[in-house]
Amino acid sequence: MSALGTLGLDAARAVDPARYPIAGAAPRAALRPATREEVAEALKAATREGLAVAPWGGGAGLAREDALPRYDLALDLTALDRIVEYDPEDLTLTAECGVTIATLRATLGARGQELPLEAPHAARATLGGVLAANASGSRRLRLGSPRDRILGARFALADGTLARTGGKVVKNVAGYGIHRMLCGSRGALAVILEASLKLLPAPGKRVALMFGASAKEIADPARWTRFPRLEPAVLTVLGRASAARLAGGAPRAEFAVIVGLEDDARWVEQQEAAVTAALAAPARRIEDGEAEALWQALCDLEDGTGPQVTLATADNTPAALAPLLDQPEAAGLSFHAPHGRLLLDASPERAAALVPRLAAAGFALVAARGSRVEPALPPQSGLLALRQRIRDALDPTRRLAFGARWVAGSI
Predict the structure, then answer these.
(1) Where a domain ends, among 157, 186, 202?
(2) Are residues 103 and 178 both part of a single domain?
(3) What range defines the domain where residue 285 resides?
(4) What is the CATH number of the domain that holds 133?
């Protein structure tokens, strides 16, 4: 670590590396730079020393990642937490990567606006971390992913070079769209330092309707035929164990169904009437702030402590779950039907058995944590070759610790 010492960062910015474990293994060192220039200097030093670097935000996801081949330096970016520019009239915002999602929500909510980014633990999840994971929750189809909201970004390459791409306004299309490519790369290609994003007006009304359902009701396609046309913001199915975690008590029904409606008040009223006509009266109904808190609680459910697989299907109704409902893992499922994303708690052995069964029913494996199944790209895949060329261009010395996993398609 001698090169870091020459910068003075080890004394002024060093933090306890034990706070930054990945798969139980702490790095050799950790730094918390205060400016983007200090981030650049730390990366230059890491390049000279041949260190493998992992950027950190709030740590909501990294602590649960699988082990890395090398992990020498944690780069804590939470000190870069300023809102740089906010233009309510233009519905745009520029902020540093360390600002939390909760802080952004509070700032924008005061002006009747929102940045519809969702991730577990909003109080510590950072903007940079959410962008790097391309994270989203139950409202992804309605509101889009981070890749859909980002207008431009500042970032640091692995060798410390500072760069920017895109712009701060919706009509700016200057340069290559590298900022969108960084969304979902999980810090494998560059370190996101600052981002400009499109905002939305907050909806006039939010309503959440909660129902109990049996496996037979979930599997009945006729029960859900109206819902794709209704376009609810949320249509989520939870197994009994997941529902218990959400509510803090054992539910009576096998499954819980949550329908979320967001729009102007009159349209929400019409949607609510259509939902109750299809499913009968809900067991519980909540509005506005309580409903918004429920969307966050659904995100928090995804932060499980054990092995988990994420799958996706083009079938956007709860009936897509029919092949899974007789399995014990159904108790721990969470399925966001509008965009077909299924999260499933499963041991490595059970995941290895379930993934092929679900693949036959149209579910594709997206990600796996703590499991032997891997959504790796085929060896001759053109996408694999493209990813390799991108990594060669942005990180030729292989300093970013997640690079190899990104190239292989396992993140």
Answers:
(1) 202
(2) yes
(3) 205-369
(4) 3.30.465.10
Tell me the residue length of the chain.
411
CB of 399 within 8 A of CB of 52?
yes
Alpha-carbon span 66 to 186, nearest angstrom: 13
What does the pLDDT read at residue 108? 96
pLDDT at 2: 47
Would you say residue 249 has pLDDT above 80?
no
Q: Cβ neighbours of residue 24 under 8 Å, at least 6 residues apart? A: 67
- Cβ atoms of 262 and 233 closer than 8 Å: yes
Whether pTM exceeds 0.70:
yes
| Distance between CA atoms of residues 236 and 118, nearest Å | 15
Which CATH number do you get for residue 230?
Answer: 3.40.462.10
The predicted model gives 79-108 an average pLDDT of: 96
Helix/strand/coil for 393: helix
Model confidence pLDDT, tens digit, residues 10-29: 677 899 999 999 988 999 99
CB atoms inside a 10 Å sphere around CB 358: 21
Query: Could you give the CA distance from residue 369 to residue 157 in angstroms, rounded to a whole number?
Result: 27
Residue 280 has pLDDT above 60, yes or no: yes
- Would strands 205-213 and 92-96 be described as parallel, antiparallel, or unpaired? unpaired
**Which of 153, 168, 202 lies at the terminal end of a domain, its last residue?**
202
Top-ranked range on mean pLDDT: pick from 58-62, 278-282, 301-305: 278-282
